[in-house]
Amino acid sequence: MREVVNGETFTDSSDELNQVEKVEEYTSSVIVRSRKMRNGDRSLFLDIYYGKGQRAYESVGLYLRKDDSEEKHKDIWKEAEKKAKERMKALKDGTFEKRVGRRGYKPHGEDPDANVDKYKEYLATKKVKTEIAVAETERKRNSKTKEPVRIRFKELANGNKSVYLSINVNGRRTYDYLRLYLIPEVDAAAREQNKQTMQAVYAIKAQRIMSITNGIAGLKDKSRIKMRLVDWLEIFRDAQVERGRQSARNWVNSVLNAVREHSPNVTLAEMTKEYCNGFMVFLLNDYITYKHTHPSKSTVMNYLKCLKAAFNMAIEEEIMDDNPVLRLRMDVLKGGGTKREYLTVDEVKRLIDTPCKREDIKAAFLFSCFCGLRISDVKSLKWKNIITEGDKTRVEILQYKTKQPLYLPLNKQALRWMPERGSASDEDKVFPTLPSKNYDCIPEWSRAAGISKHVTYHVSRHTFATMELTMGADLYTTSKLLGHTEVRTTQIYAKIINKKKDEAVSLLDSAFEE
Q1: Domain-embedded: residue 33
Q2: Residue 179 — left, alpha, or beta (φ > 0 → left; ψ -120 to 50 → alpha)?
Q3: How far is the CA of 335 from the CAs of 40, 192, 297, 429, in angstroms?
Q4: Which of residues 271, 299, 333 is at a domain's end?
Q5: How large a percentage of the chain has pLDDT more than 90?
């Protein structure tokens, strides 16, 4: 029998006569070969011919590293040749058996029948193992039944944690805000308080699971409908803030203040058309806002819209059956128009000439008079939002209220009231010293200028709109400058201008009356 190792032929001298006969049948050989890998190294393997048309490849687990010396390469190659001789010996002894690689048995060569049985055996074994794995996966999936009620925590700004329940019934997820809180465990008393709080949470969780088990939670949660309206409004407010609707916070807080004054202990179960109608009448006739005025009809309409949204959330969570706000007749809130306080050009000039105890607020207010930006956008305005190209300057922002982009050219008067940039970076604010809330100096400043109107910061935006329309700007352009999402919002200002025109024409009649 001939033996070929690394391309060299070795003759078995024990039986030279039989050798010739065997060579005529077939040639068996074991050759050491190498394959280049992606990293530049070479992997050594055996190329084995073990019968007529039968060939196999076997890895020897040896590598020629590109950074190793030539001497080391020779030593590794000798070790591979040693393994080749061992496999050749197995061929001579008749004990050779092809090793199964990762891909299993596959028939090769001109006569694949020699290996078909082993290949079929391999496929059958693989199929059985796959079926066992699938059955085991299904068993584990069924054993891990999802808990329908889970306790969740939310970090609050004051360091406390709000505890609420996440309820999943038939693939539908709802949240039960418990109005329970964990405080920082700074001492034994705090730890004891948290322990009692969690005991209450676990008790409520057990009740919810019992309701689901009995089939009640899938229909309507009878216990939560006894919740006070003020508590539900707080839950609704927190849910809106969690969804990124920061502007909803102020509206819900305003409704909360009104409900606390009107009916602090009323429950969701008492929400009827009659209650909502009485609440609307209370808002129109008796309620006094923090501005010491009755809310306008448009404000009352917004209060009711907020209440309607809160009830819709209660319906979604299957606490209430219907929304009583939808059955209200709101004709009394329509047709009266919306009053927009604004300043005339003369009044703006008087404000410019009148000192203000907060010059930064004065500059920001007048800046808004000439560009129409809301206070929320002015406070967050950064120098990177001010784009100058040649002699043109514009503001590019994402509006805080509507989350819509705004591209607003700035006129010379607006630029006049912008502070000097100096060494400020792109991330620095244009008006860095503006307060977060207190703008009480604006009414004082306007009174000092001899203006009897109730002037707030938002009046600057109304002033910009009316000045633009008075100077001849069209409604559509003014709407875009204000960042309105609907032109009908801007039409309110157009009605104001038309009313002023009617009054001006009437002056001629009075001048020539006999």
Answers
A1: yes
A2: left
A3: 83, 58, 10, 42
A4: 333
A5: 25
372 shares its domain with 485: yes
Closest CA to 441 of 456, 463, 419, 426: 456
The answer to the question of residue 214 being in a domain is yes
Rounded CA separation 344/351 (Å) = 11
Based on the domain organization, do 191 and 253 belong to the same domain? Answer: no
Domain hosting 350: range is 345-510
CA separation, residue 76 to residues 33, 35, 208 (Å): 12, 14, 70
Domain annotation covers residue 117: no
In a domain, 491, yes or no: yes
pLDDT digits (tens, 9 = 90+) for 421-455: 999 999 999 999 998 777 889 989 999 999 988 88
Please say whether the beta carbons of 419 and 430 come within 8 A. yes
| Nearest alpha-carbon partner for 316 in 256, 232, 259 | 232
Domain count, the chain: 4
For residues 274 and 295, state if they share a domain: yes
Cα 300–305–307 angle (5° rounding)? 95
Contact between 59 and 50 under an 8 Å Cβ cutoff? The reply is no
Give the model confidence (pLDDT) of 225-267 as tens digits.
788 899 899 988 888 887 777 778 888 999 999 999 888 888 8
Q: How much is the pLDDT for 503?
A: 54
Task: Report pLDDT digits (tens) over 320-334.
Answer: 888 998 888 776 676
DSSP 198-235: HHHHHHHHHHHHHHHHTT-TTT--TTGGGSBHHHHHHH
Same domain, 414 and 294: no
Residues 361, 378 contacting (CB under 8 angstroms): no
Residue 13: pLDDT over 50: no
Same domain assignment for residues 242 and 381: no
The CATH number that applies at residue 378 is 1.10.443.10
What is the value of pTM for the model shown? 0.43
| Percentage of the chain lying above the pLDDT 70 cut | 80
Residues 406 and 281 in one domain: no
> Within 10 A of 469 (CB to CB), how many other CB atoms are there?
20
Encoded amino acid at 352, one letter: I
What is the distance between the alpha carbons of residues 315 and 322, in angstroms, rounded to a whole number?
7
